[in-house]
DNA sequence: TCAGGGGCTGACCGATCGGTCAGGCATGCT
DNA sequence: AGCATGCCTGACCGATCGGTCAGCCCCTGA
């Protein structure tokens, strides 16, 4: 053994991603990951401070993109916010569907961990944007249904090609979102509506 | 102490429902439930054979309704199947949102338990019906997004009145479902293959 | 009065969890 | 040669899990 550190590090990361996607974060033990890599549990903990650090490194790219999306959403209102949130989140969810899959319903508890402190607020802002910043219960419910449904669908349809899944989801979201009556900075230009 | 058995039985059931809804099935220990009731863990296991039996009894009413819905769906095709699935599932999800909440993403592992053997097949049939029994990926993706989203929304909006939540969800589903081209109002026992 | 039984409990069990630690084993630098 | 460093490991730790068991308490009915 005694391979380059980066090599084993990456192998552990990949194995963890695979196991987490199948049995979830809590449902996967460090022993499981070590077995999949072919090393000891102590080796896993040599490369990563603890189990949470392993998850954090695994989620880092997705979180970075989520932060970018959050920045892009600031200032947008009404239909513009809805469209930006829809396109941005669908793209994010499709690209990082493996990362989303491994959170499968463990969001609430995982969010309590310091590494994911801001995600809850970001996801709430995202939901708010998708609702066109409307206070109507119908709009807020629709936004949550779509966000949760998209996440679940991306985790489920792992074998569907990226672009096919993305276009299907975007079509669905645009159809499901009721237009919000908000003052747009610019009037709704003739968007490409696929009949 | 030494109350009537049915009394303690019900208290444990109620406490378990409360704890499961907050921390999930796996995230709640028998000790937690016992602490909430104010009895010992052994008492919980005196009234219920094991943790799984506790969950099974908690879910029994919801599962019974789900089975009824499954029966009502058999034979329906196209838009009729979509409408029946939508109305039936929205109503079920709203009525049993506490039961749905406590499954939060633990569906996959929980379904492996014998008490929930048939639920997976039922939910697949439900998804199929909501897709109008279409094979198109777009229709199947839409159906899954809606089913998962509705479940999550019901688990989240616990404070919204039943009828308000139900009507909002139904409006959303009807808007989100693209009409399927199946003009048969009643099934003439032919295979329902579109195009 | 007293035996019997239902409700309930503390103590305990084996398994598994995340995490620690001293040390083995190469390899490379001096 | 001798030492240091980095990668890795088995053994072990305390905590917690679901579950078992002998036995206590109290009510009931003969």
Automatic annotation (TrEMBL), chains A, B:
The keyword DNA-binding applies. Residues 6-66 form the HTH tetR-type domain. The lineage of its organism: Bacteria, Bacillati, Actinomycetota, Actinomycetes, Micromonosporales. The keyword DNA-binding applies. InterPro entries: Homeodomain-like_sf (IPR009057), HTH-type_TetR-like_transc_reg (IPR050109), HTH_TetR (IPR001647). Signal peptide: none annotated. It comes from Micromonospora parastrephiae. Keywords: DNA-binding. PANTHER family: HTH-TYPE TRANSCRIPTIONAL REGULATOR PKSA (PTHR30055:SF226), HTH-TYPE TRANSCRIPTIONAL REGULATOR RUTR (PTHR30055). Residues 29-48 bind DNA. This is TetR/AcrR family transcriptional regulator.
């Amino acid at each position: 053994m005694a391979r380059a550190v980066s090599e084993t590090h990456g192998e552990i990361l990949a194995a963890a991603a695979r196991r987490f996607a199948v049995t979830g974060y809590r449902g996967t033990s460090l022993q499981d990951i070590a077995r999949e890599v072919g090393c000891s549990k102590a080796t896993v903990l040599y490369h990563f401070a603890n189990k949470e650090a392993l998850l954090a490194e695994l989620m880092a790219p997705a979180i970075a993109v989520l932060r970018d999306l959050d920045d892009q959403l600031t200032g947008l209102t009404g239909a513009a916010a809805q469209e930006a949130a829809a396109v941005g989140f669908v793209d994010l969810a499709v690209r990082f569907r493996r990362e989303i899959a491994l959170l499968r319903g463990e969001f609430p508890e995982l969010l309590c961990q310091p590494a994911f402190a801001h995600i809850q607020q970001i996801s709430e802002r995202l939901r708010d944007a998708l609702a066109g910043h409307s206070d109507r219960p119908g709009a807020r419910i629709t936004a949550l249904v779509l966000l949760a449904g998209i996440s679940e669908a991306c985790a489920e349809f792992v074998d569907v090609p990226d672009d096919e899944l993305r276009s299907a989801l975007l079509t669905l979201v645009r159809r499901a979102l009721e237009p919000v009556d908000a003052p747009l900075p610019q009037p709704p230009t003739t968007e490409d509506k696929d009949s």
